[in-house]
């Protein structure tokens, strides 16, 4: 199993999905550490309830982004981490960190990328009148939600949807595909090569 850390900033619902799959005994990733940049968030409680080691590193304690990220990197290496999942981590990582962990840094985003990057994705989907939205698991690159796509799930946008109702249905799919995509990376079935996803049969 691949030693894995999860970065969070909030409620940790996607973290819980990763925990549930890990506890099932079918996961290829081994959760070792949960890091939050905000103290007291519900995601930390979920991690502690699962018996996971947690650490709070506030970005406000550092002079710049890269200084914060270098401490993150040191923390990961001290714990023997080989794979990192971003589960509602509301910080843009520095180019240095992204390059250092290229191919080992996975994020989930609540849209069918490359459409609707950034925040307020569900309202954007409704405002543009798209018939389908969804979620994407990607390898993190130096852009904003612009990394190579590992997995996606499609969710129809209903005529009476609000941002909240659409978000709730997409969240169900996030919880389904995130653990499976992380598994594929942990097993080496999906890898990043020259900025593109390569799928292998093992």
Automatic annotation (TrEMBL):
Gene3D superfamilies noted in UniProt: Formyl transferase, N-terminal domain
Site (Raises pKa of active site His): 145
HAMAP family from the UniProt entry: PurN
Domain (Formyl transferase N-terminal) ranges: 5-182
Any one GO CC term of the record: cytosol
Gene that this sequence comes from: purN
Protein name per its UniProtKB record: Phosphoribosylglycinamide formyltransferase
Homology family: Belongs to the GART family.
Species in which this protein is naturally found: Candidatus Lambdaproteobacteria bacterium RIFOXYD2_FULL_56_26
Pathway involvement of the protein, from the record: Purine metabolism; IMP biosynthesis via de novo pathway; N(2)-formyl-N(1)-(5-phospho-D-ribosyl)glycinamide from N(1)-(5-phospho-D-ribosyl)glycinamide (10-formyl THF route): step 1/1
CDD domains: FMT_core_GART (cd08645)
